[in-house]
Write the structure tokens for this entry.
Amino acid sequence: MMNTKNKNIIKMVGVLFVGLLLGWMIFGGNDASKSEHDHNAEEGTETIWTCSMHPQIQMKEPGQCPLCGMDLIPLESNESAMDPNAIQMTEDAMKLANIQTMIVGGGNGANKKLALNGKVQIDERKLYTQSTHIPGRIERLMINFTGEKVNRGQTLAMVYSPEMVTAQEELLQANRIKEAQPELFEAAKQKLGNWKIGSATINKILSSNKPIQQFPITADVSGIITAKKVDLGDYVGQGMPIYEIADLSSLWVLFDVYESDMPWVKVGNKISYTIQSLPGETFEGVVSFIDPLINPQTRVASARVEVKNSENKLKPEMFASGIVNNILATTSSKGMVIPKSAVMWTGERSVVYIKSIVSNKVSFKLRNVTLGASLGDAYIIKDGLSEGEEIVINGTFAVDAASQLAGKPSMMSPDGGKAIIGHNHGNETSPVSNVSETKGKNTKSVSISQKAKDNLKPIFENYLEMKDALTNDNLEAAKKSGNNLLKSVENVNMALFTGESHNIWMSLSTELKTSLEHLGHFKTLEELRKAFLQVSNSIINLETTFNPNDKPLYVLHCPMANNNKGADWLSTSKEVRNPYYGKSMLTCGEVSKELK
């Protein structure tokens, strides 16, 4: 019985095994073929690898980012909903590039701050020429110098006049026969009256019965003597000026307005101004008049501010510095107002980058705009933007570089180009390496046109002036040269740099602008010298890369500067004149390199 049962169990196990084997052969084989088919299908779709910090890097194989060294990640394929001309950037990449945006028309207004220089001047309506009404010789001068204060009716000088003596004698003779010839007596009195001899003086002559030898010249107005035109013993004719008197109780402050700035200064504008000789005090006034004529030599017109000077703080010829604030609406008939940092100008086109969000992904797209007037730190945009659009206002060059590397429309390539995926095909060279070369000291020389070199030369001229000012411990001169250096960087025509040179110039110019942007806030030489260290590194890199100068330059090195880490600077001479220490250690350093 047991044997039969065991046999049945063995048969059942055998049947189960055979069934499993057949099932595997039938279904397992199909799965394997299906898996093989799916694998082959997957092999048909190539995975692209990118960097979360630098989305312009796209490679066909995993690895590390050539810019920052981070591990590459698979590129998500969700570009179907995104504009093909837009560049997508991750949040990490935006933070790394310090990209900031603003909504157009979202603020209350923009300021057009206009700085004006001027002088305190005498109110022309209160400037009086004191003349003599009596011809004769100056016998006495009561006021002998300018600046003295006089009151109306005060005697200024005594004059001896032969004509007056004769006229008085005629009066005395006419007085004796006035009963017979009253007309003659009145005519003699009138003759003295024409010389501004009052009735009291005439009565005095008649009562004394003898002529007065010297007559006083009295002040017609009160004020300050600003000019003395006669000396003791001079002969003067009737109506000849002898003094100039000015009433300084109210003055004018005349500000110079350049021809290009005249649209921003109107009658009624408020001006806040300071006086150089009155530090710590701020004055306010209103433009009451603008000169309708422009000086043909200086190309300026005068804007007048009338000032009360009851405390006599202000004096003519004092220098004044004023600020005119024009508040402009961000949306007006003139157009949108956006910061200058948002606009890139190629010499032919002005462009901005518009931010958009699709499927929770941030992208930026190039937009051509039409510039209006400059408002100092802002532009009026006449055309190209609409209220509510979001634009990049900081990190614009980083977005443009990413667009160019991704083959999207960019500042220098408005129609786009070939995307750079970060690795080589045969003999192709990736421009990604060019971007990395601009970080630090670039030793690779790049050829540019002579016109582009000439465009760069003002940068070196202003840099060398800044270096000399630091050598002489002159803070204000160094700041002024630094500001000129920043302007010369901004004035470079970027259209002259194409291809490989474009990427390098974009990076170097950004470095220089970043190093110099806070120049106006520096109050000590130490602060300025820290910025100069970064500026010098960029300038040396600029010279090494583009070689724009015809004459040789020398790289000098001070091992003690930068907290004993060492610092370099550029000079036209081998003589050591240390800008990092100035006069305290003027000869600290040595020539480390000659650039030809």
In short: The radius of gyration is 43 Å. The first helix runs from residue 2 to 43. Residues 191 and 481 are 71 Å apart (CA to CA). Residues 15-43, 329-333, 421-442 have pLDDT under 50 and may be disordered.
